[in-house]
Design brief:
The protein has 369 residues and is of the alpha/beta class. 34% of the residues lie in helices and 13% in strands. A 5-stranded antiparallel sheet has the order 3-2-6-5-4, with no helix packed on it. A 5-stranded parallel sheet has the order 9-10-11-12-13. Strands 1-7-8 form a 3-stranded parallel sheet.
Length: 369
């Protein structure tokens, strides 16, 4: 069985996205698009440009750094704004996202065409908060889709009881399969510290009792980027020591872009050390991070892939894609063929684990793998 361990669906981004004020969704989007590595361009002649009118980059991690602008959720996968009378754009989604939404039907169609049996839906606030939309997607395709719950990270410290109640509803009533937690969302609202301090214990203690996997999306939260990322890895290590029975997944990979070294990757030993904990699993999402750095089939990352299998084991690695966003660089079929056809070092057993067995086991679906 082929199981995409990291995909997305999202409601129309020109709406509220589950926020009580649609302006809050727009602010999350403006910050996310302003700091993303996709290039900006001037629409009149498609020359490379700048985002200086979107955000104060010296404080890029805070929503308070956003500048007043006419930032617009346009169509065909892109965002636009004007500066000094000129129209500028950034292509964040592939142009096929014509109406800036991605309902379950579209993902299922892509899965059918590429030969993917199941997908696990991930979360990020700039693609909508709340769990109703994801639960509806899962309910519509219960044999094909599973979904992760989300809570507003910035409220887990200040209002843990409400966060716990929302998560319990998502798991026990709405049928979602785990929690997706994104530490950089804390920074947006002014909290820059670690997310394992005593202020978070009420929330995390409750999560640990739910017997669900927790998916952490670690990312640099300040500059210098690599040092900031490693600091969050240290927090993760402490968190796992406090909650030794929780199954934990490092989403997206090991911050691949932060460790580019010439024509390959050189992952910090501190990051590798986190995987000394047997409860930590790794997602392989190389194309979404590096698809605009190296061309398909990206032989530059194969040594790192081999090292992952050697040091972590295929039974703790899962394949994911970041669909549909990854299609700005690779097709869905290429994402799959990258594992099936260009990893000769993998045994059939290891390939099966990475392409579905690992995530199936984590979600209690091992009999389907």
């Amino acid at each position: 069985m082929i199981f995409d361990g990291h995909a997305y669906t999202f409601p129309p981004l020109k709406g509220s996205g589950g926020f009580s004020d649609p302006g809050d969704l727009r602010r999350h989007l403006q910050q996310a698009i302003a700091v993303h590595h996709q290039p900006e361009w001037r629409v009149s002649d498609r020359t490379r440009a700048h985002n200086k009118d979107l955000i104060n980059m010296s404080e890029w991690q805070y929503l308070s750094a956003l500048k007043t602008s006419d930032f617009t959720i346009a169509d065909n996968g892109r965002f636009e704004w004007t500066s000094e009378g000129e129209l500028f754009a950034k292509q964040y989604f592939p142009p096929s996202i014509i109406d800036m939404s991605y309902p379950a039907d579209r993902l299922i169609s892509e899965m059918d065409y590429a030969g993917v049996d199941k997908a696990l839906l991930h979360r990020t606030p700039y693609l909508g908060i709340g769990n109703d939309f994801i639960a509806e997607c899962v309910a519509k395709y219960p044999d094909r889709l599973h979904g992760l719950a989300h809570v507003r990270e910035w409220k887990t410290r200040t209002d843990p009881e409400d966060s716990i109640a929302n998560l319990e509803r998502a798991i026990e009533i709405q049928g979602l399969s785990g929690l997706h937690f994104l530490p950089p969302q804390l920074d947006l609202y002014g909290y820059t510290g670690p997310w394992d301090t005593s202020e978070f214990h009420t929330f995390w203690d409750a999560v640990a009792k739910m017997n669900i996997p927790v998916f952490f999306s670690l990312k640099e939260r300040s500059s210098p980027a690599q040092e900031s990322y490693i600091q969050d890895v240290r927090t993760l290590i402490r968190w796992m020591e406090r909650y030794p029975d929780v199954q934990v997944i490092m989403t997206h990979g090991m911050g691949w872009r932060l460790f580019i070294d010439g024509d390959g990757l050189n992952i910090s030993e501190e990051v590798w050390r986190a995987f000394d904990n047997a409860n930590l699993y790794l997602q392989w999402l190389f194309p979404i991070a590096l698809g605009n750095v190296w061309d398909y089939p990206m032989p530059q990352v194969r040594p790192t892939m081999e090292e992952c299998v050697s040091r972590i084991g295929a039974n703790r690695i899962m394949w994911g894609t970041d669909m549909p966003i990854v299609m700005r660089s690779w097709t869905y079929q290429q994402n799959l063929d990258f594992i099936r056809n260009y990893t000769g070092f993998l045994s059939e057993e290891s390939t099966n684990a990475i392409l579905g067995g690992t995530v199936s086991r984590l979600l209690g679906l091992q009999e389907l793998a």
